[in-house]
Amino acid sequence: xxxxxxxxxxxxxxxxxxxxxxxxxxxxxxxxxxxxxxxxxxxxxxxxxxxxxxxxxxxxxxxxxxxxxxxxxxxxxxxxxxxxxxxxxxxxxxxxxxxxxxxxxxxxxxxxxxxxxxxxxxxxxxxxxxxxxxxxxxxxxxxxxxxxxxxxxxxxxxxxxxxxxxxxxxxxxxxxxxxxxxxxxxxxxxxxxxxxxxxxxxxxxxxxxxxxxxxxxxxxxxxxxxxxxxxxxxxxxxxxxxxxxxxxxxxxxxxxxxxxxxxxxxxxxxxxxxxxxxxxxxxxxxxxxxxxxxxxxx
Length: 298
Ligand code: CIZ
Ligand code: SF4
Known about the structure:
Blueprint: H1 2-12, E1 14-19, H2 24-29, E2 32-34, H3 36-45, E3 50-54, H4 57-66, E4 71-73, H5 89-98, E5 103-107, H6 112-116, E6 120-122, H7 127-132, E7 140-143, H8 146-156, E8 161-162, H9 168-171, H10 175-184, E9 189-192, H11 198-201, E10 206-207, H12 210-219, E11 224-228, H13 234-240, E12 245-248, H14 263-272, H15 281-297
Parallel strand pairs: 1-2, 1-3, 3-4, 5-6, 5-7, 7-8, 9-10, 9-11, 11-12
Helix pairs in contact: 1-14, 3-4, 4-15
Bound molecules: (~{Z})-2-methylbut-2-enedioic acid and iron/sulfur cluster.
């Protein structure tokens, strides 16, 4: 199957970008594996004709916004993000009207239409930098992840209005899950993603985005880690540090949307050049500004 991918990729002059939450076999055929920030940066600079985005819909949309002249394929068309769906452009417009002078920070886990209604985007890797760079004389509205919003507020000291969205996969993790994992692996360091609830984040030895967690685990002198983010990160961790052990904090830390892309679908998508992700040009232009403001900061 990976031979078929390699052959088609060459024929189509395609680049395969895979999020670190993807299945191991999908990560292994990708030209680049990373978080949404790194993948957006790759999408912006690639000279391939076709971008095959192994991730979820909003990520492929960001690629289409940043590279409007490329064909962007999302092998599994129904791979959405429930958190991104928790804020619509209409609802955001209404909320903005209630907060005079507001500046909106949109987590990249949002639709292009929501990005178009926002002032700047951020990812979990650069959220603290982005929010710290905002002018202090205007209120901030952060959409859509309330847990990430809470963490940013604590870390930066900046007051923010937060949307009430959340990631089902991360928000489901409980303090009990962490306590159970710690009891089973008392020597392990607890690494937590800020999409988890504040009371779970409070139990962490270290809190960061996926890239931050991976870097920390690789550099730490410790040998054992409890990982509180989506299961996909175990693949690069185990590959890059086979001498260390990584334990998922709970078996529920699996995003069904991220896992819905299979190798078969990647092959089919390259054969058929479907499903294509496009963004309305008017929305694209506005959303691009929000993404570019973020990319100028990081
Ligand atoms: O930004 C991303 O790629 C996501 C979804 C998580 C992270 O922390 O990298
Ligand atoms: Fe969305 Fe959470 Fe899945 Fe990421 S892990 S795609 S935030 S539901």
